[in-house]
Amino acid sequence: MVTITIDGKECYYEEGIKYELIAKEFQKNYDDPIALVTVNGKIRELMKRVSSDCSIDFITYKNPIGHKTYVRTAIMLMMKAIHDELGAGATNDVKVNFTIGPGYYCSFKNGLKIDEDGISSIKKRMSEMIDADIPFTKKSYPTDDALALFKKLGMTEKEKLFKYRRSSSINVYCLGDYYDYYYGYMMPSTSYITNFDLIPYEDGMMLILPQHGTGNGLEKFVPRPKLFKTLMNADEWSRDMGIDTVGDLNDWICSGQVEDLILVQEALQERRIGEIAKEISEREGVKFVMIAGPSSSGKTTFSHRLSIQLRTYGLTPHPIALDNYYKDHKDTPLDEDGNPDYECLEALDVEQFNQDMTRLLKGEEVELPSYNFKTGKREYNGNILKLGEDDILVIEGIHGLNEKMSYSLPAESKFKIYISALTALNVDDHNRIPTTDGRLIRRMVRDARTRGSSAAKTISMWPSVRKGEEQYIFPFQEDADAMFNSALIYELSVLKPYAEPLLYGIEKGEPEYYEARRLLKFLEYFLAIGSDGLPNNSLAREFVGGGCFKL
User: Which of 314, 457, 508, 518 has the maximal Cβ count within 10 Å?
Assistant: First the structure.
């Protein structure tokens, strides 16, 4: 017998019992399904067995780590169904690209085509396996043996990925006769995928899964054509450059050509900024450029670079931060936990903003406010502005795309831009890189440099930041006149030397420890690049420093 402490109580079980059976016993105490356990502070999969006395806690789907486990398991289930329906090598021609809402877009390559009937058969096979409750197993292979297995299975991108890993072993998952590598944890069996859908979408298919924070329910998939096009453009450029995966990027770094890669991508971004500036200049009546995007998208640097491009068309841009229209701290609304909610629209003085912008549009002289974050009050310091014929306002803020923010301004006077870091790089074909991971690492590095914030503080705030994005930014993406992708294909290699020491500073026992370890493991895939070769106007400079703009 072993003694296991759960919720402060000692429980007794046979040695060798699976954590899955214990989790099922305690599931009634949790609103969300249990995905994993922590054993003496270390995460364990439910398929593992108890070997000695210990203390355990449960991780549910509500936790981002638990939700990622569900997603990962569903993707491997889908790959196994493709393996069964289309043949052993077909999974090597399927790539999990990116997410749109609850959907994970999967594309086909090397001539593979799956029609609507084929997608239906894959979905049916997934349901059959869920009903059959097939177990997932995990085996640790010596690295050389794992590479030989990947080569035998035709998984060339995994061979390339692990060529650069220093670990002596690699964990490989097995489902029936299908083997694959996944970055992270897995559920114990197929029956845990209780909700999914698989539908044709564009030239590929969309795997629809429960979203984090929404329990285990399935939301309706709503197409977002502008966002999809922006994501596909990034994906196509990556393919043209021959950099689909982290292994490809590491090859570039080792080849000594990374400086050329940096210059090419920087030039591509500058060209896109110029295209947006040209579109603004050619649209009659535009006086307000409204820029919005999620945290750490590079909005500030983008607005500066856009302003420079606007000047080449004879316009005189004036930057305005919506943050300057925050209400005084004492008037800030509170969230459900009783904390000031700076993310909601009501935290801004919308009425004053509209009055000021309407007066400027009429040609009147207006004194613009600035917000003092130290005192928590709005101030007026003689910033007088009057718009001439060639003047244009570049307005940046979380609610820039929301019509309620600028309700009094004529639609023809506004040009809306959505910006986000939409990475097209994958770990490998079946392991995508969430855009949120890239932005979190960006913010962590920037906050440590500019605000002295610890990585733990940045990670602890991230759920609240993400909640605000889901409520106040993402619903307005498709209202944008233009989208700008601020992701740089090489940026995680640049951020790695800055982020790793910050993450190592989070001690075991801190609430942010598990997320820190996950990000450290993720960064292990990348070879590092020094920041010396970055142009001084690069978006990456907003995070690592050394840029030419006063941010």
Answer: 518
* Nearest to 242, CA basis, from 182, 308, 315, 157: 157
pLDDT digits (tens, 9 = 90+) for 340-394: 888 899 999 999 999 999 999 999 999 999 999 889 999 999 999 999 999 999 9
Return d(Cα 524, Cα 522) in angstroms, integer.
Answer: 5
Q: Which CATH architecture has domain 66-222?
A: 2-Layer Sandwich (3.30)
Q: Quick one: CA torsion of 419, 424, 427, 430, rounded to 10 degrees? A: 110
The answer to whether the CB of 101 falls within 8 A of the CB of 211 is yes
What is the CATH T-level fold of the domain 228-544, as seen in this structure?
Rossmann fold (3.40.50)
- Indicate the SS3 state at residue 348: strand
- Least Cα distance to 460 among 493, 506, 398 occurs for 506
| Cα(126)–Cα(134) distance, integer angstroms | 11
Domain boundaries, the chain: 2-60, 66-222, 228-544
Q: Is 481 helix (H, G, I), strand (E, B) or coil?
A: coil
Distance (Å, rounded) from C-alpha 542 to C-alpha 551?
Answer: 7
Whether the model clears a pTM of 0.85, i.e. scores above it, the answer is yes
